[in-house]
Amino acid sequence: MTQLVNAKQMKACDQYTIDTIGIPSMVLMERAALAVFNELMEKEKYDLSQVLIVCGSGNNGGDGLAIARLLHLAGKNVTVYFVGNLTHRTTECQQQYAICDYYEIPILHHLETFLGFTLIIDSFLGIGANGELNETAKNVIDQINHSQLPILAVDVPSGIDASTGTSLGKFVHADTTVTFQFKKTGFTISPGLEACGNLQIVDVGISGDALKL
């Protein structure tokens, strides 16, 4: 039976893995990015000729930046559309941003059109998102949805409450969602259920021992 967790439980599992087991957060982020990278490279359904990764300032954005680097090093044309607040980046997101800078991966902070891209990776908002989204976030989600491009969501479609499945005002309609370690309760309830598209649950080494405490 598939283990279901809400956002609070998932965060507890993350922290237990980091604090009690001793696996650094950046290691978990690299594993998460590699899992998405493997999904992209192993499935022929993805056109990777011009990939756009939409990133926020949290760890979900950090995942996206790490994915960008892996694709870049594999010879793929990848562009990052960073719509998060630079001053509010998590430590891990800052590190991944700096690594992308080192590799001279294009990072845009404004993008009028998604024309010319072949795939969108939604790494904008993660499981920590809750409450009504601001207008900037809603506009970005509209851009993603109106692009008519295939969309792969990282961990959770942006704008979906991972615990309740409710919309935070606007949400990404993903074709595929690659979620980490456990299925989220919000993925069993509309509109979260439909927003995920084809749901892939991947093992990235996050312990479930915190759920037993």
TrEMBL record:
Binding site for (6S)-NADPHX: 59-63, 126-132, 155
Entry's cofactor comment: Binds 1 potassium ion per subunit.
Molecular-function GO terms, alphabetical: metal ion binding; NAD(P)HX epimerase activity; nucleotide binding
Names of the cofactor(s): K(+)
The entry's keywords: Isomerase, Metal-binding, NAD, NADP, Nucleotide-binding, Potassium
SUPFAM superfamilies listed in its UniProt record: YjeF N-terminal domain-like
Domain called YjeF N-terminal: residue spans: 10-212
EC number: 5.1.99.6
Residues that bind K(+): 60, 122, 158
HAMAP family reported in the protein's UniProt record: NADHX_epimerase (MF_01966)
PANTHER family given in the database record: NAD(P)H-HYDRATE EPIMERASE
Family: Belongs to the NnrE/AIBP family.
Biological role stated in the UniProt entry: Catalyzes the epimerization of the S- and R-forms of NAD(P)HX, a damaged form of NAD(P)H that is a result of enzymatic or heat-dependent hydration. This is a prerequisite for the S-specific NAD(P)H-hydrate dehydratase to allow the repair of both epimers of NAD(P)HX.
Protein name listed in UniProt: NAD(P)H-hydrate epimerase
The organism's taxonomic lineage, starting at the top: Bacteria, Bacillati, Bacillota, Bacilli, Lactobacillales
